[in-house]
Amino acid sequence: MGVDGSPVLQRRRLGHELRRLRDAAEKKLDEVAEHLECSEAKISRIETGKVPVLARDVRDMLELYGIDGEKRDSLLGLAKDAKREGYWERFAEAAPRRFSTFFGLEAAAVEMLNYEPLIICGLLQTPGYARSMMLANINVDPDQVEKRVQLRMERQKRLTDPDNPLRLHAIIDEAALNRQVGGRQVMQEQFEHLVRMAELPNVTIQFIDVDEGAYPGMGAPFVLLGFADPGDPDVVHLEQNSTALFLEAPADAERYRLLFDRMRKAAMGPNDTAEIVRGMIDRRF
Predict the structure, then answer these.
(1) What is the CATH number of the domain that holds 121?
(2) Within this chain, do residues 54 and 99 fall inside the same structural domain, yes or no?
(3) Cβ distance 210 to 175 under 8 Å?
(4) I want to staple 232 with a disulfide (CB 3.0 to 4.6 A). Which of 37, 51, 227, 244 is the partner?
(5) For the segment 144-190, what is each residue's pLDDT rounded down to a tens digit?
(6) Residue 173 shares a structural domain with residue 110
(7) Could you tell me if residue 88 is inside a domain?
(8) CATH number, domain at 37?
């Protein structure tokens, strides 16, 4: 599936266009809900791309907005594409449904900026490290750990995709390196994996030294996803223990880009970071 083929991205595009058409037609949410004989909440979820939308609902909305011809056919085609299943659906029983939107957006993104203060970024974790983290998470069913590890490894394939490699820039607090997750063998494999991943042309890894002291954004992890089409706005993903928040307003994305840039300046350079990891391998293992 190409980056533009993600059903979540298609759903998001469709929702944004339906919202634009509603505004152009000067229709309020309650008018559209009455026309479709549904709740206003459903219309809002469709416009924000949070739920799949039925073709008949799209047809009814376009009829209300006075849209026909090629434009109508194009949007109905988009609605059909948005109903396809993504690879992550194969792991639906193991991963909470709230993650589906993130997985779909990640699959469509061309750029990821990821800051982690306490752990190694998910796309850079080895199976052993990921497994140890999941076993320690009270929200993860122990019987589903292996499935979730498989899902994480599947997600990581974007980094080595020969056609559409994801550009990953990860900033990790040094505290994550000093936390022994899963034991010595697991950490040695994780450090060696970081060195290998840092050699990829599309992967940049920087550590923030503990001696740096306080720095902008310290302690609050986030992911910013960027897309190839300028019409697809950046998304900021904030994850907590049992909830996830998406920020899609351009001002929010710009603020987090600025924050990441300040973190980048506070962090060690990529070459120094790689040398630090090699030194840790030599000293600890």
Answers:
(1) 3.30.870
(2) no
(3) yes
(4) 227
(5) 999 999 999 999 999 999 999 999 999 999 999 999 999 999 999 99
(6) yes
(7) no
(8) 1.10.260.40
Question: If 0-12 CB within 10 Å is exposed, 13-18 middle and 19+ buried, where does residue 265 land?
Answer: exposed
Kindly indicate the confidence band of residue 4, based on its pLDDT and cuts at 50, 70 and 90.
low
Separation of first and last alpha carbons in the chain:
40
Where residue 130 falls among pLDDT bands split at 50, 70, 90?
very high
pLDDT-based confidence at residue 1 (cuts at 50, 70, 90): very low
Measure the CA–CA gap between 55 and 150, rounded to whole angstroms: 33
Residue 240 is part of which domain span? Answer: 95-283
Alpha carbons within 13 A on the beta-carbon side of 4: 5
Q: Enter the pTM of the model.
A: 0.86
Residues 22 and 145 in one domain: no
104 and 58 within one domain:
no
φ, ψ of residue 204 to 5 degrees: the values are: -120, 125
Does the residue 2 lie in any domain? Answer: no
